[in-house]
Design brief:
Number of helices: 17
Mean pLDDT: 81
CATH architecture of one domain: Up-down Bundle
CATH superfamily of one domain: Type II secretion system (T2SS), domain F
Strand order of the largest sheet: 2-1-3
Strand content: 5-15%
CATH topology of one domain: Receptor-associated Protein
Shape: extended
Distance between the termini: 75 Å
Largest sheet: 3 strands, antiparallel
Order of helices and strands: EEHEHHHHHHHHHHHHHHHH
Low-confidence stretches: 47-59
Structural class: mainly alpha
Helix content: over 70%
Radius of gyration: 29 Å
Length: 407
Amino acid sequence: MANFIYKVSQPSGEILQGERAAASKEDLIAYFHEQGLIVVSVDEKIGVDLGKLTEVQIGDMPIGEKVVLIRQLATMLGAGLPIVQAMEILLQQQTKYPRFKQKITEVYKDIQGGLSLSVSFKKANILFSELQISLIEAGEKSGNLVEIMNQIADDIKNSAQLQGKIKGAMIYPIIIFLTVIAVVLILVIYMVPAVEQLYKDFGQTELPWVTQVLISVSNFFTNPAGLIISIIILIGGVLSFRSFYASKQGRKGVDRMLMRLPIFGDLLIKIEVLQMTRLLAMLVKSGIPIIDALKATSKALTNYHFKYALELAALEVSKGQPIAVPLARSKVIPLIVVRLIATGEETGKLDKILSDIAAYYADMVTEITDNLTKLLEPVILLVAGGVVGFLAVAVYFPIYNLATFIT
């Protein structure tokens, strides 16, 4: 979001000017046109307002507080409070996050101006994703806004818990690998040069090839030129990968490779299926047309092949095909899931079937993440053992040779 200085003209000829935040210049111009105003000028505000430095917010609002805020809004609406009054109460409570309060203020003013809750939050681009905005809009039309708001809060909470479990399971392997890297660096920078010098002191010039490899690596990284080259290669590699992954073919290839990884590939597939079925269930239950639900869900998924499968399904369904047919052709969605979706279509209980699939996969993902450390232990032992063994041979083999020479 950026701030823009605008000047617009009312049909009566009166000139209005001020400052407003928007996702882009085009979005702001489109908004003014919707209000029946004639745009005179819109320029992005550049620079830092020193008077607002105390309002700078570092980081986003924590997931837990977002969930509480959404539940508070749902509770107030369920109690019969008007939306304007509910938003005013939420606004009064926001003192910890200045940027968030600013956005909530914009939402409050837009609702006061007659806009709906979904349109106001979409304009402010805060708190809710595009898919969640679609759910809120459906709730406004169907009269189930309170129920949908609670569903959104549950979904945000469940997604955060899933991410937390995966991150928690990865802590142990990451610590092990970081420790191994630290040991390697210490040996390469300090221990190996000392062994080389010891060899020279005894008049030995020919080191074992294993040690010579480590010495070459040590000399390269302790040399400023080598360090600069390494940093340039690292940055270039990261930028190249990001550029490659941003392309269609690059993302297609990388996401396909990720799905084929041992242990992690199966976990990634199950997470995508869980997200897909959970979001589809929410959208279908809310009364959103299946084609729109498929399109919205595809945008929320991360894996290219799952996104493409749902986009293709939306296209085929618009032509009269059942959902299960294009999903089966995608070859990325498990066959059992496709068959269950087909059953849901035939019985008219698609939302119930999707919810059941999501619950099943949630249990599977939880089980895998709980045992992820145990599953990775053999890999960790092999890698760490191989590195330690190589270093032991490289460091102690020449020392053993020296002991033999002295004897």
